[in-house]
Specification:
By secondary structure, this protein is mainly beta. It has one domain: Protein of unknown function DUF192 (Jelly Rolls). 10% of the residues lie in helices and 43% in strands. It contains 3 helices and 10 strands. Strands 1, 2, 3, 4, 6, 7, 9 and 10 form an 8-stranded mixed sheet that branches. A two-stranded antiparallel sheet has the order 5-8. It is globular. The relative contact order is 0.24. The N terminus is likely disordered.
């Protein structure tokens, strides 16, 4: 059930980047973020590489366009991240916390997922995001 009836999800252009509203519904309440969405192979390959910082309320949502096991890595990524692996219904399958910057070690989803949300490391712990919590974004409303 959507806790934000009437909330408008959609792009908001900020500088050269485009952000979309995303909400993670936790036991502590809704946690809103502004995210860039990587929908193409090129965008997914680039991800957050080479960035030196990421605001606490920002992130990147990787849309894989199909449900399958995925692996992420931190090559050329300077900011430690929390990675939330998300099922097609928007529920969080797994969280990889405090990933190691610049690492080529594979970080697996553990099961088939549709998307991955990357947030600044420590965000999941700080705001109480847990596996099983729900992500609200139009990507998950299609299903």
């Amino acid at each position: 059930m959507c806790l934000f009836l009437g909330v408008v999800f959609g792009p908001a252009s900020v500088g050269a980047e485009t952000f979309e509203r995303l909400v993670v519904v936790t036991k502590a309440g809704p946690q809103p973020f502004q995210v860039e969405v990587a929908r193409t192979d090129a965008d997914r390959a680039q991800g957050l590489m080479y960035r030196r910082s990421l605001a606490p309320d920002r992130g990147m949502l990787f849309d894989f366009a199909r449900v399958e096991p995925v692996s992420m890595w931190m090559q050329n990524t300077y900011v430690s991240l929390d990675m939330l692996f998300i099922r097609p219904d928007g529920s969080i399958a797994r969280i990889a916390q405090d990933t190691e910057p610049l690492s080529t070690r594979a970080i697996p989803s553990g099961e088939p997922v549709l998307a991955v949300l990357e947030l600044v490391a420590g965000t999941a712990r700080r705001v109480g995001i847990k596996a099983g919590d729900r992500v609200e974004h139009p990507l998950f409303q299609k299903r």
